[in-house]
Structure formats: structure tokens, C-alpha cells
Amino acid sequence: MIKANKYYGDLEKSYLFSEIAARVRRHSEANPEQEILRLGIGDVTLPLAPAVIAALHEAVDDLASAERFYGYGPEQGYPFLREVIAENDYRARGIDVSADEIFISDGAKSDTGNFGDILAGDLTVAIADPVYPVYRDTNIMFGRKDSMIMLPCTAENGYTPSVPDQPCDLIYLCSPNNPTGAVMSRADLRDWVDYALANQSLILFDAAYESFISDADLVKSIFEIPGAEHCAVEFRSFSKSAGFTGLRCAYTIIKKITLINDGNGKMVPLHDLWLRRQTTRFNGASYLSQRAAAAVYTPEGKKEATAAIQYYKRNAEHIRSTLSNLGMAVTGGDNSPYVWARIPEGYTSWEYFDYLLKNFGIVVTPGSGFGSCGEGYVRFSAFGAWETCRKAMALISKSRDQ
Amino acid sequence: MIKANKYYGDLEKSYLFSEIAARVRRHSEANPEQEILRLGIGDVTLPLAPAVIAALHEAVDDLASAERFYGYGPEQGYPFLREVIAENDYRARGIDVSADEIFISDGAKSDTGNFGDILAGDLTVAIADPVYPVYRDTNIMFGRKDSMIMLPCTAENGYTPSVPDQPCDLIYLCSPNNPTGAVMSRADLRDWVDYALANQSLILFDAAYESFISDADLVKSIFEIPGAEHCAVEFRSFSKSAGFTGLRCAYTIIKKITLINDGNGKMVPLHDLWLRRQTTRFNGASYLSQRAAAAVYTPEGKKEATAAIQYYKRNAEHIRSTLSNLGMAVTGGDNSPYVWARIPEGYTSWEYFDYLLKNFGIVVTPGSGFGSCGEGYVRFSAFGAWETCRKAMALISKSRDQ
Asked: Do A248 and B50 touch (CB under 8 A)?
């Protein structure tokens, strides 16, 4: 008799963003006249950069031509893209990453979610609380509900997870953090790399928001930390760095030197396992998305991507300063597109979500959706239009003035 | 200590098509003057249809516009695409499938490979031999190496798998078949559906090649068989029907009525589980690919897609008749893009692969790469250019004349 993966029964019913969408839909239907100001989901709103658009039109024309048609590409991604990533995002910063250590995919959500496929089931997992729900939910799907060590991230520790007292096999780190906007310092990351080396752990480092880091002394890649090449995998995405949420393109770095116990005691390259997974269960990212991504590394592409990031950073700074001026405790928003705000006493996160929605049409993300330590907070996203952001902050400011 | 999924150690080292690519590369480097005639991998070669190209340019322009920008889409796919699929591929043929029973994805390889995520680990699995390697390899990855029932497909049974004597939980069927090109009859499929209903099995029906079916009495969808709505999932793809191998777009049908034991004895909708999987581990197919796919259903798109299929079918017919005239036993090639040919005595499939490559520069796929019953066969693909196909058949014919 056919049976389902029983661990799906351990999942909470609704995915956070679906629930938000449903509440907003119900509210809009009941109040069609009220403008909805979306500062909730981390979706970009600026159109794609001209350099990217030009590359896309060219790439479409390739597919119209018998001579320049591209069918199946390499599952690992086209060398033309992997080369410019290695050069620009790593070697130019003095980080040793080669093109064949890069795997192009359709998204960091897929990669972080799928990575567990190549790992053993009976692992202990360290996950921050609050956390991007995908890490938690996919580990529940893999049957690890009772072997997760939650690392509280609160005002007390600057929203940065500390290494646990006990050994732990698999560690998820996200910096700049979703949802808190906190950025781990070089010293924080060194602690984690040292811990991973001492405990033979693997760090999955989600750097999807690295392009928002502007402080020169902050780390953009885990591979800037000595020893990380033996114990870490890095995930990056064009979704936020170049507005590709609708295009789908991301990449994952696995150093060829990284070894893992194959489950039978033999040490094997982690790179080989992921390559086997991807060649068997994935057929490469779209040629169009890969051509678009390569355009991000042209001189015009870089300039335009930077301008978009600056636009969102202006939003973030405005949200941060407005809330801060109102006396709310906030973190993030400086080297991150997210502002994590302590809500007034007497509200749960969902109640405050409803309060903002009903009174101002403002959509945020309730902190409790990211874990129990997120209760008492909401996440503001800076990915909206400046005008949306300005209106929302004006409404909140005005309500406090009265 | 971090450990890998130990079942990866049960996989054979090399993925079939990577090995072929490596042999061709070595041969080409040693014989740079010899033209390579590719009839191996099932990749399309015709450029995308004009209607699809026009839709892609339009969709690119959407992404260049602040007003028409699309970011994250619904994980299940855009309604504009799911609606036209339901209407054209199902309702127009009298098959009851609604838009919300359709899941858009980046490929049928991903979907058939990932489907095991929502199923229990300890299942018995029936898989044809020869078979598309993804079914076999992903089941090995899920730890089912020793619980696979291989169903021999040979000349004796018309290359069609027969229902086994014992109960079996999960069944992979592919029709038109990859690699044999055989198409299951309505009666064959009825046997399997009856078997699945009697044994509470689930059929994963891979219909990636359905657009090659021209005989009116053949079944295109498993849902044409009464009862299939309780025991089957169907996978389709734009890769072969519209040449999207480089674009990445496919879809999977899960009827809302299909129930599955949740692993704890409760019957739950299979649809809910896959929706949960996709919303958690996938972020939707590219907006561009979905717009392109929708264009396949316009009047021009349909006409152009049909013309491309006819082009490949002409290749298939030419391969089939040439080999047949040479006295080789062949199957497929009529309602399928693949011709499955019995090779001369004295060769293994890989030896015959090497023989065709070294003597004529012809690349085919060795049958043994698809399973032990594939030994003694090679697969010819009709997805090459007509000129390639014609040259290859002329070389083979000539060699036999001498």
C-alpha cells in the first residue's frame, strides 16, 4: 500500500507567506478602497536593469535561431556564468573559489531546501530562532523534528546565534539575517567555523542578502574565514542582488576540498554528492536566466545592480530611522533589507500584523511566523517602492503623534 | 559528526549521459576532422516557435517595466498557464482536470525525481527495465535499492511492462516510452490502473512524449482510464512538445480526489502533500518560461508546435525504416521520437555505441545504460536535424551495402 512521508504530518499546516496572502486578500475584499502598502514578503519591486533586459532579448533571439539555439545546458550551469561569478564575487575579493566549485540553480530556496537530500537522516541540526521557515520545515520533512537545536536570537545576544554547548552535525547560518537583518561579525563566524571544525559539523551558510552589506569590515562570504573550506557550503542568489525573484537563478558553492563521511565511514568529496544529486534530480537553470545573470557582471550591469540595492537601502534606512524615532527597538536595515522591530506591549505578532493591516493597510511579516523567539516582533521589508515605504512610515508616525 | 545519505554509495558512479558526453569529447579531440552526428541524448534542435519567441520578448519587456514587473509567482504556477493547460490538454479531450490540479515546474526530471520526497521510504517500487535512469537512481537515493521490482520489457512482451504477481506500492510507467519508444495501449493501462486500485498502489505516469502520439485510438493521458483519478499522477513537459529543454517548464497533474495513507493510517489528499513540498522547497518556474508555455496554446503556437513535432516524426520514421530495411529489429519511432534497435550479435551496447562513434561519428545511447534488459539494444533519438539524421542513416546503409 502506498504511504506518504509520515514526517509531513509534523509540519504546521500553513506556510507563513500563504497565510499572510490569505489575510491580505480577505482584508482587501472587505475594504476594496484601502490602499495596501506591502512591506511584508521579501519580493523585489524594481524592474530588471537595462543591461539584464538587453541580455534577455539577445538570449531569446538565440533560441529563435537554428545556429544559436541552446537546449539542455550543463546541470551545474553554463561555464560562461560560473566563470564570471568566480572572478567577480570571489577571486576579486581574494577568496579562492573556482568556477567548477559553483553550482547554478533555480533558487536559493530550492538549494537550501534540497541540500538535505544528500545528507543522512539522523543528524542533529542547529537552527536559529527566529529563522527563514524553509530550514526548519525541510528538516521536519527529513524527520529531524526532535533533533533540532534551536538557537535563540534575541536582543540580549544581538540577534546572533551563539555556538551551542553540545556537538551538532548540521548548522544553518544566514547573514545578513532573514528575518532579523542582523549581520554576523567576522569574530562570530570564526567561532562557528572553529566549532564546526572541532565537531566535524557542516555549516550551510545562506548569503542571499550579501549584496546589502556596505560596511567594509563585514564578511560577505563564509570562505573569508580560514578553515571554512573544510566545513561550509555557501548559498547565494540573484533574487535580491539583481531582482531575479521572477527569473529564478541562484548558486551554491561547494569547495572541492570539503570532505564528508559517506555514511559508511569513508570520507568523500561533498561536491561529488551534490553533483550527483543535481545531475539526477535537476536539469539546469533556464538558459535565459543564466544569460541574464551573466549580464549582472558587465560594467553596466554592476552599476545598475548597485543602484537598485541603494534604492532599497534608502527604504531600509527610512524604515529603521522612522521606527527608531518612534521609540521602537529595531535591528537590521543598515547592511540588510530587513528591519526587525519590537512591537508594543500587549500585542502578539499576528495581532500587531492585523493592527497594521486593518488600520493602515500596511503588510508586514509577523515575527512568530519565524519561530517562537520571533514573538513580539514584526519584520519590515525594504523591497517595496520608495513611495509605498514613505506612505507607510508617514501613517505609522502620524498615528503615534495623536 | 556530519554524515552523507549513505544510499548515494549504492549508485553507479557515472550518470549515463555524462559518460556518453565524455566519450564523444575524447573521440572528437582525437578526431577533430570527423563530423559528429548526434542521435543520442533526447535534446531538441529546432529553434523555438515564432509565437513562443514573441511571447518571450513581450514577457522580457514586462520585467523591464515598473508597472508590469513580476517577482515571485505562485509556487504552483501562474493561473494564466494552468487554465490553458487544463482547457487544451484535458477538457478539450473530455478529461476532467482543473487548473488547480496542475502544478507548473522547471522540468519533468525534477518532478519525477522529487516526487519521492513526499512518499514513505519503505515502499516496494515497480520500474520497467530498460528505464529512464532518473526513476531508478532517485529510488536508490531514497534507499529503495533492494525493494525495486524490475519489469522486463523485451521483444516478447512488446516492450510493455506487465503487472507483477505480487503487490507493489509505487509504479513508474512511461508512455510513449523512453527509451524503447513503445506506447502502452488502452488495455495495458487499464490493467495497471485496475492493479493499482486493487493493491492501493500509486502510478507515476510519465507522459513527457505524449505529443508524438498520432494514432487516434492511443491514450495520451492516464486520466482517460476510469479509476486513474484515485491512483495516478501524471507528468508532462514542454521540453519535447515545444522544444523547451533550455527554457525549463513542465507540469504535474494531481487530482484533488486522490488520497494517500499519511504514514500514520489516515487518508489525506496527495495534492496537499505535493503543494506543501513545492511551496517549501521550490519557488515557481521562471515567469518567462511560463509566458512562453502559455504561447504554445495560441492558434499560431499550436500550429508551429505541431509542425516541429512533424519534423521530428519524419526523422523518426526515416531512422525506423532505414534500420528496418537493413534487417534490424526496431520498435518505436511511430508514435514516439525514439527508435529502439536490436544491435548485431557479438556487440555489447557500449561496444556498438563505440563502433558507431568511431566509424561514422554517430552518437546513439547504449541500451544497457537504461537497465540490464537494454543490453543488446541502442536508442536512436529523432530530435536531431533532418540533415544529421539523413547523413547518419546514409552512412549506416552504405556500410551494410559493402
From this structure: no
| B13, pLDDT greater than 80 | no
pLDDT tens for residues A71-93?
A: 999 999 999 999 999 999 999 99
- Taking the C-alpha atoms of residue B305 and residue B240, their distance in angstroms, rounded to an integer, is 10
pTM equals 0.96
Q: Looking at beta carbons, which residues of chain B come within 8 Å of A141?
A: 117, 277, 280-281
Q: Under an 8 A CB cutoff, do B263 and A106 touch?
A: no
The answer to whether A85 and A216 are in contact (CB under 8 A) is no
CA–CA separation, B111 vs A367, rounded Å?
A: 32
Report chain A's terminal Cα–Cα distance, integer Å.
64
Residue B156, helix vs strand vs coil: helix
The answer to whether the Cβ–Cβ distance between A4 and B268 falls below 8 Å is yes
Comparing CB atoms, the residue among A9, A107, A200 nearest residue B1 is A200
B75/A134 Cα distance (integer angstroms): 14
Query: For residue B236, how many other CB atoms are within 10 A of its CB?
Result: 25
**Among candidates A39, A12, A68, which has minimal Cα distance to A356?**
A39
pLDDT at A19: 87
ipTM: 0.96
CA dihedral A99→A224→A275→B254, nearest 10 degrees, is: -110
- Domains annotated for chain B, with CATH where assigned, are 6-47+302-401 (3.90.1150.10), 50-299 (3.40.640.10)
Residue A25, classed as helix, strand or coil, is helix
